[in-house]
Automatic annotation (TrEMBL):
<keyword id="KW-0012">Acyltransferase</keyword>
<dbReference type="InterPro" id="IPR001451">
    <property type="entry name" value="Hexapep"/>
</dbReference>
<dbReference type="InterPro" id="IPR041561">
    <property type="entry name" value="PglD_N"/>
</dbReference>
<feature type="binding site">
    <location>
        <position position="146"/>
    </location>
    <ligand>
        <name>acetyl-CoA</name>
    </ligand>
</feature>
<keyword id="KW-0677">Repeat</keyword>
<feature type="binding site">
    <location>
        <begin position="11"/>
        <end position="13"/>
    </location>
    <ligand>
        <name>substrate</name>
    </ligand>
</feature>
<feature type="site" description="Increases basicity of active site His">
    <location>
        <position position="138"/>
    </location>
</feature>
<dbReference type="InterPro" id="IPR050179">
    <property type="entry name" value="Trans_hexapeptide_repeat"/>
</dbReference>
<dbReference type="InterPro" id="IPR018357">
    <property type="entry name" value="Hexapep_transf_CS"/>
</dbReference>
<comment type="similarity">
    <text>Belongs to the transferase hexapeptide repeat family.</text>
</comment>
<dbReference type="InterPro" id="IPR011004">
    <property type="entry name" value="Trimer_LpxA-like_sf"/>
</dbReference>
<dbReference type="Pfam" id="PF00132">
    <property type="entry name" value="Hexapep"/>
</dbReference>
<protein>
    <submittedName>
        <fullName>Acetyltransferase EpsM</fullName>
        <ecNumber>2.3.1.-</ecNumber>
    </submittedName>
</protein>
<dbReference type="Pfam" id="PF17836">
    <property type="entry name" value="PglD_N"/>
</dbReference>
<dbReference type="InterPro" id="IPR020019">
    <property type="entry name" value="AcTrfase_PglD-like"/>
</dbReference>
<feature type="active site" description="Proton acceptor">
    <location>
        <position position="137"/>
    </location>
</feature>
<feature type="binding site">
    <location>
        <position position="70"/>
    </location>
    <ligand>
        <name>substrate</name>
    </ligand>
</feature>
Amino acid sequence: MINKLIIIGASGHGKVAADCAQASRRFSNIHFLDQAYPKQKHNAHWEVIGHADDVANYIASDTLFFVAIGNNAIRARVSAELHALHCSFATLIHPSAQVSKHSEVGVGSLICANATVNIASKIGQGAIINTASSVDHDCEIGDFVHIAPGAHLAGNVTVEEQSFIGIGSAIIQGCTVGRHSVVGAGSTVLANIASHLVVAGSPAKKVNNNN
């Protein structure tokens, strides 16, 4: 029986993941591994039991792992390292989230409190659908994307891998945000965004490259 969860990353985002896991009532034991160990021994109510480099020591048949790192590129890299060690990953969905049974949520993703994933949408691996954000019908969210709190995506939106959609932003129906791009907080996306760009404003316009 799987009843233990090891979270990689004892940060503020890690607290959110642990709280979500606890609310789901799937795990009797929730612990952290972090680079700050042994200096850091706790993260809110949960114990930091070891260093993040010691993952192999905690692999067991009753244990799942979750990578709680907000930075998309680092989360992807650490997830690949755990995958190479044959770790089993948890997918965390807060009980207050509204996730259509006709949607798909990839392994290792986090759906936070009061978030919505609507019908026929697909969420990739290791994605974050943060607090009170919404992904409407027929959207495609790539691997290791982060949809920040209060961001809203209309129907048929595509967000490609490792892009970041900032807090309180909005994307109208049918738009695509390319790979490794950043949409600034409070922006309104009215047209497609190419890969490797930073955009901001209403309407959102290029402000920099994201290399």
